[in-house]
Amino acid sequence: MRRKVVAGNWKMNGSSEFARAYCLEISSHLPVDDIDVVLFPPFPYLGIVALSDVAMGGQDCSVNASGAFTGDVSTEMLRDVGARYVLLGHSERRVMHGESDELVAQKCLSALKADLIPVLCVGESMQEREAGAAFDVVSGQVNAVLSVLSKAQLKRLVIAYEPVWAIGTGLTATPDQAQEMHQFIRASIANVDAEGAEVVSILYGGSVKSDNACELFAKNDIDGALVGGASLKVEEFIAICRARQQV
Ligand SMILES: O=C[C@H](O)COP(=O)(O)O
């Protein structure tokens, strides 16, 4: 059975005071029955979120275990501070830090070996969509990871489809556009492992808000959401979690 996941990616926002107040507020609404609620705060605030009941993850990880890698954070370090998830291959990392499909695949492997759940982000740019290449791009990103995982590892993956043109722009993919890509991703998983396709949760990300969440969650292959901007307002994030619970 696929888990329903609602995750908040704070990106590079917040402060220790923000994190404390946020966790206090959200904790009073947890647990949300049948929903996995996850926060991805910036690294310095993981320790604060760890004091609450909210599941959390790192926004990235290294493929290396330790050593002279200034600025990097290892999977074991994430585990050590209580993280259960890690966000990998976000388009902001792919574009601004030049992360390749191959590197993202290696990071997924490292995360799984450390018993972290990787949330693999995939998605096409507007230029790629307009050129009719959206499915090829997403297929390449997904298959690069599937090709290095065993069937057992694949079943522990979460995938987030985030069309780059919908991130932080207010331009949400229509529920039909999102469903079409989610169904395609699920079919790509089924090509490798039919059982895996039934258990891997596929989240949608890109300008998700409480007022568009229900229509997205109503689609068969949309299991949850990866929320950026709207997750910075705790009431709004809770409303999205409730929407997932209701649909
Ligand atoms: O990780 C989250 C996504 O980039 C979505 O961000 P957004 O909700 O601000 O569009």
Automatic annotation (TrEMBL):
InterPro entries: Aldolase_TIM, TIM_sf, TrioseP_Isoase_bac/euk, Triosephosphate_isomerase, Triosephosphate_isomerase_AS. One of its GO terms (molecular function) is triose-phosphate isomerase activity. It comes from the Bacteria. CDD domains: TIM (cd00311). Its EC number is 5.3.1.1. It is found in: Cytoplasm. It catalyses: D-glyceraldehyde 3-phosphate = dihydroxyacetone phosphate. Substrate binds at residues 9-11, 168, 207, 228-229. It is an enzyme of class 5 (isomerase). Keywords: Cytoplasm, Gluconeogenesis, Glycolysis, Isomerase. SUPFAM superfamilies: Triosephosphate isomerase (TIM). The active site is at residues 90, 162. Homodimer. PANTHER family: TRIOSEPHOSPHATE ISOMERASE. Involved in the gluconeogenesis. Catalyzes stereospecifically the conversion of dihydroxyacetone phosphate (DHAP) to D-glyceraldehyde-3-phosphate (G3P). Belongs to the triosephosphate isomerase family. This is Triosephosphate isomerase. It comes from Pokkaliibacter plantistimulans.
